[in-house]
C-alpha cells in the first residue's frame, strides 16, 4: 500500500515538472524581440578644440616704486580709482640716514669756512688791485677762488637739503618725494598705508611698491596648455573664453604668443600662452578673473554628422548598422571627417533618411 502511494506521488511530481517545462518554453517563445533605438544623420556645426586654463589680466600693469627711503606721509589714491599719467599717488617724508646727514653738515661747514677765507683774500687783493699795487693777472686767481668756494658752498647746502627733505632749491617743483603714476589707468592695489615705511628702488633692492596701476582697456588671457596639445595650436588661432565670474557670456580672443619652453607642473609639462581679448562691449572685466579658453583647432559648419557612439570598427575601417526593415540591420562602411568628441562628420556612405542602430543603454542626441 505504501509503495503504491510513493509511486503515485513521484508520478504526480514528474508530470508537474514536465508541465512547467512545457509552459516555460512556450512563454519564452512568445517574448517580443529586442527593439533597438535608432538615430538618423543630422546637420550641425562641428568644432574641434582644446582647452587652456588661466586668467584674465591687463596687458600693461605697472608697480609704482619709491625712489627714496622714508615714511608715507600722505596717500592720494585708493584701489579702483581711475588716474592719469603724472598724477601724484603719494608723498614721502624723508627719514635721513644719520651718517649721511652728519657728513653733509660737515661738508657745508667746511665749504662755508673756505668761502669766508676766500672772501677775505678777495677783498684785500681787490683793494690792492684798485690801487694799482698788483696787476690784473695777480688778482684773477683770488677772484676765481672766491667763485669756486661759493659754488661749493651752494652745492653743500643743496646736498644737505636733499638728504633732509629729498629736494633741493634748484630743483624747483621736481622732487622724488612725490610718487607719480607713469601710466594712465586704474589703481588695482595700494598695498601700503599712511605711516608705513618704504625703501628706495636701487640696484640691490626692488623697492617698496606704492601702488599697482593698469590699463583696463586692454586685457589679455594668460594660461597654460599641456604638451600633448601645444603642437596643435599656432599664433593667430581664435579662442573662446569662458569666465567663471560672468555667467551666460563668452568672449572672443586671438592667440598671439606660445612659450618656446615648457615648465613642469604637477608632473606634467605646461606651455604658457597669451591671447588678446576682443572688445568686451561694456562688460567690466576685473584683473585676475579665472577663465577657460577653448582653442579652436578646426571648424566646419552645416555638415552631416552622427553620434560617435554608433560607430563600430573592423580593422582600419569604420562602419555602422543601418536598418533595412523592421528590426533588421545591415553593416555599412562609411567615411568620416572632423570630430568634436561627441559628434563626427560623415563624408560618404549615408543619407539623412537612414536609421542607424544605437548600442543598448546609449541615448545620443538626435535619436528617435
Termini separation comes to 69 Å
Q: Architecture of the largest domain, according to CATH? A: Beta Barrel
Largest sheet: 6 strands, antiparallel, barrel
Report the total helices.
Answer: 4
Number of strands: 21
Number of structurally distinct domains: 3
Q: What fraction, in percent, of the residue positions are helical?
A: 25-40%
Percent in strands: 35-45%
CATH homology superfamily name of the largest domain: RNA polymerase II/Efflux pump adaptor protein, barrel-sandwich hybrid domain
Rg, alpha carbons: 44 Å
State the CATH class of the largest domain.
Answer: Mainly Beta
* Sheet with the most strands: spatial strand order: 2-11-15-13-12-16
What is the molecular shape?
Answer: elongated
Structural category: alpha+beta
**H and E string:** HEEEEEEHHEEEEEHEEEEEEEEEE
**Which topology of the largest domain does CATH recognise?**
OB fold (Dihydrolipoamide Acetyltransferase, E2P)
Mean pLDDT: 83
Low-confidence stretches: 362-368
Characterize the structure shown:
This protein is an alpha+beta fold. The chain has three domains: 38-43 and 302-357, conserved putative lor/sdh protein from methanococcus maripaludis s2 fold; 50-58 and 218-300, Beta Barrel (Elongation Factor Tu (Ef-tu), domain 3); 63-214, Beta Barrel (OB fold (Dihydrolipoamide Acetyltransferase, E2P)), CATH 2.40.50. 26% of the residues lie in helices and 39% in strands. It has helices at residues 2-29, 98-130, 136-165, 227-230; strands spanning 38-39, 42-58, 61-65, 70-75, 82-83, 88-94, 178-180, 185-189, 197-198, 209-214, 219-226, 238-243, 250-258, 263-265, 268-277, 289-307, 312-314, 317-325, 328-339, 343-348, 356-357. It has a six-stranded antiparallel β-barrel with strand order 2-11-15-13-12-16. Strand 17 (312-314) and strand 18 (317-325) form a beta hairpin. It starts with a helix and ends in an 11-residue tail after the last strand. Mean pLDDT is 83; it is low at 362-368.
